[in-house]
Design goal:
Layout (H helix, E strand, L loop, with lengths): L1 E6 L13 E6 L2 E5 L5 H7 L7 E5 L5 H4 L2 H10 L6 E5 L3 H12 L7 E5 L5 E4 L2 E7 L7 E7 L8 H6 L6 H7 L4 E2 L5 E2 L1 H4 L8 E5 L6 H6 L5 E5 L7 H6 L5 H11 L4 E4 L9 H8 L5 E3 L4 E4 L10
Parallel strand pairs: 3-4, 4-5, 5-6, 12-13, 13-14, 14-15
Antiparallel strand pairs: 1-2, 1-16, 2-3, 7-8, 8-9, 9-12, 10-11
Helix pairs in contact: 10-11
């Protein structure tokens, strides 16, 4: 699993930071969170296989988070996409997508499925689920929690051999947590021959928000919290007025949540260097970095391997 930051600026792009978009790549499939202008170009630069794009999640309908959608949808058609594409977002996203499609008069050779969500909704996927939660911005804004399914524990072959379990489908049933009965009537319990499951990875996407205890609650124990860190703390009043967080505020959320790692994004274009924001956050939560465009972060399955 890896997370790729396609755009890391605030509402205004710069020569070095594009508008917000983050890709999560897992087992070859791609999930996209927000789609600011220029996202399609960043996808190409990041060597993301556009055909593997599975779902798009839009946090809210401010222009810097959605203006890249029309171009991306047209690019998918030029790439000869045939399978459906799912787009999720708050009320209004369906009108935005299909109004643009109508006005721009572009043909899609694939089905575009747009699903409007409220906070508290969950979306099931192949080996994962996405939970939505409410953020505190200047318009209705969703955060997203990616939760990978737990992986079954390791099957102890020495134990199954000693118990007389034959090689074949019975071993798979044990691995999947099912107790079995052997031909002689002996019951073999999965818990006796399978180790503890490996907890699935958890990634939180929470940008365009004031700091919230509820975000900390949703982020408990996450492998990675991606959080709004638009300003330094000297501009905390402006941050709160505009529905954003400072680097220090984001770090405090990370501490409350007990997350493993914190990455700040949605950075104000006034900062030509991210160092002041990084230093501010790291003084509170050491495992913090500031994202930059096209930065890739591997999220290992083992909690013992550091992200950065």
């Amino acid at each position: 699993m890896k997370v790729i930051f396609l755009g890391t600026s605030g509402a205004i792009p710069t020569l070095y930071r594009n508008l917000p978009s983050v890709a999560l790549v897992h087992d070859g499939s791609v999930l996209l969170f927000d789609c600011g202008e220029y996202t399609q170009i960043q996808i190409i630069k990041a060597s993301i296989r556009i055909g593997k794009l599975e779902r798009i999640f839009i946090s809210h309908l401010h222009g810097d988070h959605v203006t890249g959608l029309p171009g991306l949808l047209m690019l998918l058609n030029h790439a000869s996409r045939e399978r459906p594409l799912e787009i999720y977002g708050p009320a209004g996203i369906k009108s935005y997508v299909f109004s643009n499609k109508k006005i721009l008069n572009f043909y899609a050779g694939y089905r575009i499925e747009v699903i409007e969500l409220e906070a508290g909704a969950s979306i099931a996927g192949a080996g994962y689920k996405i939970d939505t939660f409410l953020l505190d911005h200047t318009t209705y804004t969703l955060g997203f929690r990616y939760m990978e399914d737990d992986k079954p524990g390791k099957l102890d072959i020495d134990k199954t051999n000693a118990l007389g379990v034959p090689v074949g489908p019975l071993l798979k049933r044990l691995k999947n947590g099912e107790d079995i009965t052997l031909s002689d009537g002996k019951i073999v319990r999965s818990n006796d021959v399978v180790g503890l499951p490996t907890p699935g990875r958890k990634v939180i996407y929470s940008i365009d928000t004031r700091p919230l205890d509820s975000v900390a609650e949703y982020s408990k124990g996450a492998d990675l919290l991606i959080h709004d860190g638009m300003f330094s703390n000297e501009l905390k009043e402006e941050a709160l007025k505009r529905g954003h967080s400072t680097a220090a505020m984001a770090a405090q959320v990370g501490v409350k949540a007990g997350v493993k790692n914190l990455i700040l994004t949605h950075i104000s274009p006034r900062y030509t260097s991210s160092e002041p924001l990084a230093l501010e956050a790291k003084s509170i939560f050491e495992k913090t970095i500031v994202a930059h465009d096209l930065m890739e972060v591997d999220v290992p399955s083992s909690r013992d391997i550091p992200l950065f």
